[in-house]
Amino acid sequence: MPEVRPAGPYPLDGIDLETWLVRFDKNGVCTSPGTRAALLAALAATPTSPVLFFSHGWNNDFADAVDLYRTFLSRLQEVLQTNPLPPGPAPIFVGITWPSIWLPSDSGPQMAAAGPRGQDPETERVAEELLDILPSSTDWNRFYQLIDAARLTQAEAKELASMLVPAVKADSVGPDEATASEDKIVAAMNAMQAARGGAPNRDNLDDFGTADGAARPGLGAAGILSYLDPRWAVRLASLYIMKDRAGTVGSNGVAALLQDIKQSTHGLLHMVGHSFGAKVMLSALAAQPANGSLARSLLLLQPAVSYLSFAATVPGREGPGGYRSVLDRVVNPIVTTYSNHDIPLHEIYHLALLRREDLGDLQIAAGETAAGNPPNAYAALGGYGPRGADQRLVNTIPGPGEALDLAGARLIGLDGSVPNRIGSHGGVATEFTAWTLRALMALP
Question: Exposed e or buried b for every residue in 69-106, given b needs 16+ CB within 10 A?
């Protein structure tokens, strides 16, 4: 029987701030309405307290999300001990959780006013996502045989890929390269496995990189491997589904919570999103009426969105980047991190996400950075930094006490590549990112 928590704060070990967690389902419906109501009442009771509003990203179960929030806030507390903010009320932390992983090891406690849920076995969890996507003619017995196998031949991988093509949902009216096929799914599986240097680690599914941040060979260097781990095929389909889900959770659910937070408090709102959590926060802001800024700051940590999301124009598509309107929803410059040590976003993203809605643009040269220039039209913001938006790129993300100039542009990219200050996709709870948030919180 899952733990049932009363409506109220969710204390995090070692964190002095008041901390709350609000849960959403895959459709963006809040599944902890009692906690949500208690949060809004608490904000109304302390109407000048700043709010830190944070969304975790892809492949974080409940325990992963809690650990990210706790670790990031620990780093922030350390930074503030030696570099305190101007006097004022302490911030209130609000973290959201949403189902961004297919195979969770920890579903988390039952939150106030949500219905009882059980823990599904891994294969049932996969089927739960795919039953609504794959055709009724799918040979489920064969599907489970393939995904449960220790390894697949290239022919077996292609057979599994043929079953997963509908889950990719490629846009048939897009460019030729934005079509789904068995060969492309298998090629992406080869690239993902080569980038990781072997099979995926179930204990750390969020990060394909190595502990030291060393890059692995990409698809071109990988060629055709002797065998493939079937979990890469499942994770590739998950990549598509979870990216779409992040937009749904943001625009349907988090957008409404954002509006209610702004109506409940006069405190400054500082928003943070990691990985697909950046898409959650961007989608929530983009869904707001275009009648003024809602957030004081927005920090995107290794965002898993297009590097042209804020571009003024995107050749190959009509109009600007999908999140350009968000530039007007935030008072101070939007800050994003990127790194060539982020293997999923620097090496994999542009090989896997090839639908028309993922299309960015032809490469736009904006000056070489340590992370390099985007390799194709589908590159990730967290892998290469923003382009086409009058952005300012900072070659090295500063650390505590180092100068961080946040003036001169509406969009600022901070490169964590050198000297390995962001060493992996999941390595965002550091003194460097905490110092960045502290700098944003200190702006007028």
Answer: bbbbbbbbeebbeeeeeeeeeebbbbbbbbbbbbbbee
